[in-house]
Amino acid sequence: VVNSVNLPHLDVPFTTHFRLTVMHQNIPNMVGQIATLLATANVNIESMSNAARDKVAYSIIDTNNEFDFDDVVAKLEAIDAVYRVRLLKK
Predict the structure, then answer these.
(1) Does the predicted TM-score (pTM) go above 0.90?
(2) CA-CA distance, 19 to 38, in Å (whole number)?
(3) Contacts for 41 with CB less than 8 Å, ≥ 6 apart
(4) Best CA proximity match to 72, nearest among 51, 87, 57
(5) DSSP states of the chain as a string?
(6) What span, in angstroms and rounded, lies between the C-alpha atoms of 71 and 52?
(7) One digit per residue, pLDDT tens: the chain, 90 residues?
(8) How far apart are CA 6 and CA 24, in angstroms?
């Protein structure tokens, strides 16, 4: 995320096979909820970055292992404080 009006600046090289991006409210325990959900789905987090600007935060999670993409994205989107989830495949 670069030069966004509403999101924090994050410049993270994409070096893994899969990347999840999560835009969410900047509130306590959001990163914990995301990491716990991914661990439950057997997603090994290779790297994770998070930044916030005011009330909005953006998390980038990189992994090399395959997982049930649709299920994980749906569960992340079901968290009340999550605005948007994207899955990128390299």
Answers:
(1) yes
(2) 12
(3) 67, 68, 71, 72, 75
(4) 87
(5) --S-SSS--------SSEEEEEEEE--TTHHHHHHHHHHHTT---SEEEEEEETTEEEEEEEESS---HHHHHHHHHTSTTEEEEEEEE-
(6) 26
(7) 666 777 788 889 999 999 999 999 999 999 999 999 999 999 999 999 999 999 999 999 999 999 999 999 999 999 999 999 999 999
(8) 12
